[in-house]
């Protein structure tokens, strides 16, 4: 029996999708604003594996996570996947949508695996809320 769960969060940023994309996809500056899911090694291109430090709790201990970049749609979506097959896998998406007041940025992540029914992903959702708010603050106060 394989369980399924997901988390989702979003933020409204008062700028264009082009500007959000340029900040979100810039490996040189991402560490200036992102204190949640920090890329250590790898490139943001389809087929690449990126090594991350994930800080679920603010000021907490980092977990090491590897994610394979599955699909990139410029200024619209980044899709990454990883985990341990059958145990716990993730399908992570950044989604950018143009809106009248700027750009809606969403993080949606789906989990599958045998330990999923016994696991509470809400702390991960809160971490992603922090990440999106850090992105918003960086862009709007730059």
What features would you describe in this structure?
The protein is an alpha+beta fold and 142 residues long. The protein has one domain: 2-Layer Sandwich (Alpha-D-Glucose-1,6-Bisphosphate, Chain A, domain 4), CATH 3.30.530.20. It contains three helices and seven strands. It has helices at residues 17-24, 30-33, 122-140, and strands at 3-13, 37-41, 49-54, 63-73, 77-84, 88-99, 102-113. The longest helix has 19 residues, at 122-140. The radius of gyration is 15 Å and the shape is globular. Pfam families: Polyketide_cyc2. This is SRPBCC domain-containing protein.
Number of distinct helices: 3
**Helix and strand sequence:** EHHEEEEEEH
Main beta sheet, described? Answer: 7 strands, antiparallel
CATH fold assignment: Alpha-D-Glucose-1,6-Bisphosphate, Chain A, domain 4
In the CATH scheme, the class would be Alpha Beta
Tell me the total number of β-strands. 7
Whole-angstrom Rg: 15 Å
**Spatial order of strands in the largest sheet:** 1-7-6-5-4-3-2
CATH superfamily: START domain
Look at the helices and sheets and give the structural class. Answer: alpha+beta
Number of domains: 1
CATH architecture: 2-Layer Sandwich
Q: Give helix % range.
A: 10-25%
- Principal-axes geometry comes out as globular
Query: How much strand content do the residues show?
Result: over 45%
Overall mean confidence score, pLDDT = 96
Q: Pick out the low-confidence regions.
A: none
Distance between the termini: 48 Å
